[in-house]
């Protein structure tokens, strides 16, 4: 296996459990995901935590911006995402990054930590992510892949922890993708599914990068991307894709 396994749960298991929560990570694991993709931000007072949006409204019962809220306030919010899931996941909390890393180790789940800073906090969010991994990730396990849409975040990781694997994350691969990914020392490339072609997927692989495609929720499409060379499929619904993507005990896929 390379840096990333085949089946990666997006924000945990976003289709079936509150995203970017410990329950979501457990759901992805139970569904057969081999890794999870999670979004890392900072509270106002510098605590690294999981949250996708800059605002609190969609996934918590809070209001306002993450960048304006201290960790003590954020800890008091319900992250069970009641608008989507009702009271099924009542009392779910926003997790801090050390708690997340401890759970991943306990479950033996690999990870892709997407550094998703609130605007203006690119360097400090990347530095906090690196610090948490250094403090809480056992040296004998393969490290999480740290990805970001923000070049400044990847540059910071490269400067602070050059040995940590980095993922070049984009909606769409532009003309400079290979030069940029190479300059940032990335080992994986993470394009969005919508603008990607099988030909480009082949180019990425031929250039020596691992390829992780997001967000793929259709079984047939996921199998097609695997045949086009994708190493990893990032999906909201790992349970749906598990049978088609996971390698059986005989060492072949069922697809
Ligand atoms: O890391 C892949 C994907 O999560 C990037 O987009 O907005 O879902 O974080 P987003
Ligand atoms: Mg993400």
Topology pattern, helix = H, strand = E: EHEEHHHEHEHEHEHEHEH
What do we call the CATH topology?
A: TIM Barrel
Main β sheet profile: 8 strands, parallel, barrel
Query: How far apart are the first and last residues' alpha carbons, in Å?
Result: 19 Å
Whole-number tally of structural domains: 1
Chain-averaged pLDDT: 95
Helix/strand/pairing category: alpha/beta
> What small molecules are bound in this structure?
SN-glycerol-3-phosphate, magnesium ion
Cross-sheet strand order for the largest sheet: 1-2-4-5-6-7-8-9
What does this molecule look like?
- An eight-stranded parallel beta barrel has the order 1-2-4-5-6-7-8-9, surrounded by eight helices.
- The mean pLDDT is 95.
- The chain is an alpha/beta fold and 255 residues long.
- It is 35% helix and 17% strand.
- The chain has ten helices and nine strands.
- It is globular, with a radius of gyration of 17 Å.
- The protein has helices at residues 22-31, 71-75, 82-85, 97-107, 122-136, 151-160, 177-183, 198-206, 219-227, 238-245, and strands at 7-10, 35-42, 48-50, 110-115, 145-148, 166-170, 188-191, 210-214, 232-235.
- Strand 7, helix 8 and strand 8 form a beta-alpha-beta unit.
- Helix 4 (97-107) crosses helix 5, helix 5 (122-136) packs across helix 6 and helix 9 (219-227) packs across helix 10 (238-245).
- It has one domain (7-251): Alpha-Beta Barrel (TIM Barrel).
- Bound molecules: SN-glycerol-3-phosphate (G3P) and magnesium ion.
- SN-glycerol-3-phosphate is lined by residues 10, 37, 39, 52, 114, 147, 169, 190, 214, 234.
């Amino acid at each position: 296996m390379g840096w990333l396994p085949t089946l990666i749960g997006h924000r945990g298991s976003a289709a079936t459990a509150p995203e970017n929560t410990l329950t979501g990570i457990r759901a992805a694991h139970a569904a057969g995901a081999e890794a999870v993709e999670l979004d890392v931000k900072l509270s106002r007072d510098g605590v690294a935590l999981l949250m996708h949006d800059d605002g609190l409204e969609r996934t918590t019962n809070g209001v306002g911006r993450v960048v304006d809220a201290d960790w003590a306030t954020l800890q008091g919010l319900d992250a069970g995402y009641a608008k989507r899931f009702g009271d099924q996941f009542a009392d779910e909390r926003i997790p801090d990054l050390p708690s997340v890393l401890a759970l991943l180790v306990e479950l033996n789940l690999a990870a892709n930590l997407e550094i998703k800073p609130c605007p203006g906090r690119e360097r400090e969010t990347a530095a906090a992510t690196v610090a948490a991994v250094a403090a809480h990730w056992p040296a004998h396990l393969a490290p999480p892949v740290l990805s970001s849409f923000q070049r400044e975040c990847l540059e910071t990781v490269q400067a602070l922890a050059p040995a940590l694997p980095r993922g070049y994350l984009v909606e769409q691969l532009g003309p400079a993708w290979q030069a940029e990914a190479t300059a940032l020392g990335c080992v994986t490339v993470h394009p969005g599914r919508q603008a990607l072609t099988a030909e480009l997927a082949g180019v990425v692989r031929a250039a020596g990068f691992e390829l992780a495609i997001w967000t793929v929720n259709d079984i047939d499409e996921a199998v097609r991307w695997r045949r086009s060379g994708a190493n990893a499929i990032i999906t909201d619904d790992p349970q749906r894709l598990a049978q088609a993507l996971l390698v059986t005990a005989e060492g072949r896929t069922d697809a």
